[in-house]
Specification:
Distance between the termini: 40 Å
Mean pLDDT: 89
Number of domains: 4
Strand content: 15-25%
Length: 694
């Protein structure tokens, strides 16, 4: 940005803002030291102290900015002589007059949304380029009769704060997603500030900022609806742990550290989850037919006895007939919605039946006291109505072809039945479940309910945790069963669903958003929004990826890139034997080109070890995404984990193998080609896919 005549004055204003920020931090720190949350006093007094303590700690976390910029710019209204400075957190002076307005406040909306044709009452919008506390440049946009907003000509997307945006896009990536709070664009802000109730679906192609928009929306909703969301909770669900590590800094940088980040497996307790199923197994486990299969599986464990129960009782015997056991099971099914909740009823009825069979009057309590540990009684109860965990139910089901067939009835074909089977472990606690088992474990939990506790612990429950708002990223690959998990966690049907149908690459890739909405809360009509502008990808990279998209799905249009410059992608032919080491050379070339940036080496799953070994043999420092995240400057990333990430440069290895190995091969290749913000190389020994041969 060129030198601006107001640069010195604006720097002085920012200096004053930082002084006020530090004063606010000192006040908040003093208040926390004044609040003692001790054991004395009334329950009400302790509760009030806890509230004050939590409020002060939250305020202190907001005021810790680190190296993040405090202020992004200011807006000047046409008729109001007082400008508003827009920043990361609200800051006031000693008289409580606003110095910086929180970016989420209603008054800040024109900073992101005003355009030349719709100025929202602004005469000027000013953007700051800062490094820490130092103001590097100032960029003005004038409205009304002066100068129209900066942006692309014609019908193209209009860009707010073009210089600041380009500067942010050119900054080297750190391996962690950064916030865009200083450069939010109009179509992004409209989604961020959309009303909370109901399901909002956001379609966005590569580089449109859909992930970071969804996270800013979570921060905005917490600011706007602090009560009740702070108590109800906000959940952000990502596709894998690499992705969660990549986005984990965004919300804390916006002053919201209380949002829960999770993958679906985190929503299930008490089991070990690792890896994914493929092919038919993944398809079957994600199919809604599994709901009826699991219901039948539970019902199959609620059984009348096959022979009368006879138990010795002193000099005589007590008896319960098979007909009585059938009556008990039938009555328990009628009374109890959750399987485990019916166990105590079955026990009581069993002891009542045994007591009635005695020739003299005998209480069920006496029978229980005498016989509750008898082997025959325990065996009968385990046959009629066993207490089950979700893991026990699925472990037994998967391990028996007869149980699977009986539960499935005609719902599954023979190949589908075979796809569900797995060898039983000696102990259910030793079983390692896959991510595709997670929705089935959750469904089983919904059918079984918790095991009854002899002595319930106050404050500890087994009910499913629900949330006031749920954000789901990369939702286009979720199976119907996985979507049921999310539906079950929604307290009130308020959700933000984000993804790109063109990047549907899994076994349950969806053709449109309606297929996904059919499995989500429908308390209100769903709303849809689309991000159409690509900010991250240089035009040459987007043009190459668009060729693949046209072949993968000609009905989907790629986003329009605002970055028309950029180096053309490199396509490097390698020999079959030298491929891994040619990949290393290409990665080093890209690293030299991006300097302090980072490079992703995106490989088919079958080549992860081969390429990693080549880096080790060559003595080149690198990281593996599955072990180190994106902390290294060069990272080997399986193509199945790269979705949602952005890097300075990427090296895509053996595109034809990606197409052949992935369930939606061309779409997976499209994802791989759209990760880099600057440079792209393709290294191949086999022929290129037809889409890349044009």
């Amino acid at each position: 940005m060129a030198e601006h005549p107001d640069l010195e004055a604006e720097q002085a204003y920012l200096d004053r803002a930082y002084v006020c920020l530090e004063a606010s931090r000192e006040v908040a720190s003093r208040m926390t030291s004044m609040v003692e949350v001790g054991r004395g006093g009334t329950e009400q007094a302790r509760f009030e102290r806890d509230v004050i303590w939590d409020t002060m700690l939250h305020r202190l976390s907001q005021l810790e900015l680190g190296d993040a910029s405090l202020c992004f710019g200011r807006i000047d209204a046409e008729e109001d002589l007082t400008p508003y400075y827009i920043g990361r957190v609200a800051v006031s002076d000693e008289t409580q007059e606003p110095v910086i307005v929180d970016w989420r406040a209603p008054v800040a909306e024109p900073f992101y949304r005003a355009t030349g044709s719709h100025p929202m009452g602004l005469a000027r919008r000013r953007h700051f380029a800062t490094r820490g506390r130092i103001l590097l440049g100032v960029e003005d946009e004038l409205f009304g009769d002066a100068v129209t907003a900066l942006g692309l000509d014609g019908d193209g997307p209009r860009i707010s704060g073009h210089g600041a945006l380009m500067s942010a896009l050119e900054t080297a990536r750190s391996g962690k997603l950064g916030d865009i709070v200083a450069t939010i664009q109009g179509e992004q802000d409209e989604i961020i500030r959309a009303e909370m109730p109901g399901v909002l679906v956001v379609q966005g192609g590569p580089g449109t900022g859909k992930t970071v928009v969804a996270l800013h929306r979570a921060a905005y909703l917490l600011y706007t609806h602090r009560f009740p969301l702070e108590g109800q909770g906000v959940l952000v669900v990502g596709p894998n742990r690499l992705f969660l590590g990549y986005i984990e800094q965004v919300l804390p940088s916006l002053g919201e550290a209380g949002v829960e980040l999770a993958v679906l497996a985190d929503l299930i307790e008490g089991v070990v989850v690792r890896g994914r199923d493929t092919g038919l197994t993944a398809r079957v486990k994600g199919d809604l037919r599994m709901v009826s299969v699991l219901r039948r599986a539970v019902r199959d464990r609620e059984r009348a006895l096959r022979r009368d129960l006879v138990v010795g009782f002193g000099l005589t015997s007590l008896r319960m007939t098979t007909d009585e056991s059938a009556r008990i099971v039938s009555e328990a099914r009628r009374r109890y919605r959750k399987h485990n909740a019916g166990r105590r009823f079955v026990e009581q009825e069993l002891f009542d039946a045994l007591a009635r069979s005695h020739h003299e009057e005998l209480s069920a309590g006496t029978v229980r006291d005498r016989l509750h540990g008898a082997f025959e009684v325990r065996e009968a109860l385990e046959w009629m109505w066993p207490l089950l965990t979700p893991a026990q139910l699925l472990h037994d089901l998967y391990g028996s072809r007869a149980l699977v067939r009986n539960a499935a009835g005609r719902a599954l074909t023979d190949p589908e039945l075979a796809a569900l089977q797995r060898e039983r472990a000696d102990h259910v606690e030793d079983v390692v479940w896959t991510n595709d088992d997670v929705p089935l474990l959750d469904e089983a939990r919904a059918l079984l309910g918790p095991k009854p506790k002899r002595r319930p612990v106050v404050g500890v429950g087994d009910e499913v945790r629900t949330y006031g708002h749920i954000v789901v990223d990369e939702a286009q690959d979720l199976s119907p069963m996985q979507l049921r998990v999310l539906n079950r966690r929604s307290l009130n049907g308020s959700m933000t669903i984000v993804g790109d149908i063109a990047q549907s690459t899994g076994e349950w890739a969806h053709a449109n958003w309606q297929e996904i909405l059919d499995h989500l809360p429908d308390r209100r009509p769903p709303r849809r929004a689309e991000l159409t502008v690509g900010y991250r990808l240089p035009a040459p990279n987007m043009a190459l990826a668009a060729r693949v998209l046209r072949q993968a799905d000609p009905d989907i249009s790629p986003p329009r890139s605002i970055r028309q410059d950029g180096d053309p992608p490199r396509v490097l032919r390698a020999g079959p034997e030298s491929l891994p080491f040619d990949v290393v050379a290409a990665a080093l070339d890209e690293l030299a080109a991006v300097g302090n940036g980072n490079v992703a080496v995106i490989v088919p799953a079958s080549l992860v070890d081969t390429v990693s070994d080549a880096f080790t043999t060559s003595g080149v420092e690198f990281g593996r995404a599955t072990r180190h995240g994106l902390d290294a400057q060069i990272t080997v990333v399986p193509v199945g984990l790269v979705k949602g990430l952005e890097l300075d440069a990427s090296v895509v290895v053996e595109p034809l193998l990606i197409v052949e190995e992935e369930a939606q091969g061309l779409r997976a290749l499209y994802v791989a080609l759209t990760r880099a913000t600057k440079r792209l190389s393709i290294v191949h020994a086999r022929d290129l896919p037809l889409a890349l041969q044009e």
